[in-house]
Amino acid sequence: MIIQGLKIALESLWANKMRSFLSMLGIVIGVGAVIAIVSVGSGSTESVTSNISELGSNMITISPRIMRGRFGQMSGVSSQDKFTVELANYMEEFCPSVSRVISTKQISGLFIYDDVNVNANLVGTEPYFREINNYQIGQGRFINDQDNQKRNQVIVLGSELATDLFENDNPVGQKVKVNYQGRIFMFQVVGVMKEKGGSMAGNLDNQAYIPLTIAMDRMTNSNYISSYIAQATSSQKAPQAVKELENFMVKFLDDEDQEQFRIMSQDELLDTVSSVTNTMSMMLGGIAAISLLVGGIGIMNIMLVSVTERTREIGIRKALGARNKNILFQFLMESLSLSSLGGIAGIGFGWIAAYFLSQYGNWPFVISGLSVILAFGFALFIGIFFGLYPAMKAAQMNPVDALRYE
Amino acid sequence: MKNRTIRVENLKKNYYLGKMKVEALRGISFEIDSGEFVSIMGPSGSGKSTLMHIIGCLDYPTGGKYYLVGEDVTKLDDNQLAIFRNQKIGFVFQQFNLLPRATNLKNVELPLIYAGITNARKREEIARKALEEVGLGDRIAHRPNEISGGQRQRVAIARALVNHPSIILADEPTGNLDSKTGLDIMKIIQKLYEEGNTIVLVTHEPEIARYARRIIHLKDGLIEQDEVVA
Ligand SMILES: Nc1ncnc2c1ncn2[C@@H]1O[C@H](COP(=O)(O)OP(=O)(O)OP(=O)(O)O)[C@@H](O)[C@H]1O
Ligand SMILES: [Mg+2]
Fold it and tell me: Is residue B17 within 6 Å of ligand 1 at its C-beta?
């Protein structure tokens, strides 16, 4: 009965090729969308996750939270004062899961070389900044301890900034001027970094790096820093390190509600990324589900038309001995064939779409078996669910009325 | 005692058009024996088709009794009626009622499919034989719209025969055919009768009705005359 029903169903679908195709389209798009979306979601998450892991080793940043100002005044300034270079040493001392803490001071200035000038960030920092960020030297060297002690006016350029300023010239050994709040500072370029891309601290490539002491004492003349970068002793210890740092800062600033500082870790970033991509996937999945639903309604519509059109056929079949369940089965098979053919086409379509999107977006091409099974299963369910009513209508027709139908 | 194929007692059928009651059959009783050839005649609207539908297990009567090969049909449910239609009844309609997209062979196979014969080769074999019996052995792969009206009716007859029913019901089988083709069809029906089939035929035309050995005349839902033809 199953094979017979399937054969009858396929024959009648084939007889109405165009209509069958159009009524399948909703399912094709729905299933294809589910598969493509899940693939894009997991592919891009995978690539972002691996990017984040490359950012640096067990990095945790601690920075003052800029508090809401009142009457144009920054109310957070007083606590910002407490973010000193010395505090980094205390963090290292009181947080056993933290191996290293370095300070950074971020300012922005106008870089001038020859007749080129570019606005960019300057990061005053310590030599360990490079290791903690897993940042590779392209040419020359990075800031070293001596630079900090002797307050050498040296500068290391991110790859993008180097190209912007020097184009094809070799930057190492050249001198650049930096205009910071109206004062001009002269730096000697000692190194250019390799390309790195995004990081927890923003895009490293369009920044420049100078000794912390220069940024603090010479340029800003302040004794509080912009943020600390801490490194956990191991990635397993990272959550523990975050806790210790939190406790330390809460006590130090007497800030139970953590209003004055902010701690960000890679784990947290990964969590954020995955929650963002989850939300996205859910949203898009919802859209896909709606399109499947609409596809189902399309199938129901076509099946109802088909049942009405074939009233006489139903009458003939019944007169020849078809039972109600034979007719029910025949039409159910038809809607099921529609939705499963649509499902198969949708899998192919989604697969191809996912492949091209992964090429375009440059992330790994992954097709989750679960998404294929789920989308196809849902399509079958839709076929049965929306095919049931028209099939029941067909099965329950009175044979005499059906035979008389013109 | 004779072998009764059909026995109807005081058969009634009412239709309702809104609040209006239409009494299509108002109490009909007769018996038909196995191997009989009966014509039913009567003016339009006298209830001939209604009677055929009930005899053919396509419809329930409003009142009265109907026994088909000894079985009380009024007590059967939809499912059992379908089995009866499949096994005991062979229909031939005025409008042929073939499936237009199926080949003649497939059309004739339909009753076999619903009889549960799953072996496709066996089905084809039986259907081909039935088509050969009505002289259409060379048209099995054609579709209904590729053959003449007379040939279509012959396909329908082959389809009616294919399950060896207890009775063949033909409702104006020549109504859509010219008189010469109609006579060809009647020759086939005559042959089936001579082979021992039980046949009930509805017609307007006296010369067609005279092929039968007995004519039941209906009028206004009642039997007007039940005559035996010499
Ligand atoms: N489904 C129906 N609903 C309402 N009335 C019906 C229905 N079918 C038949 N009738 C009525 O029942 C009566 C008998 O109809 P039936 O079709 O049996 O006549 P008939 O003898 O076959 O006529 P004809 O020679 O024109 O085919 C008619 O008055 C007809 O209008
Ligand atoms: Mg009639």
Answer: yes
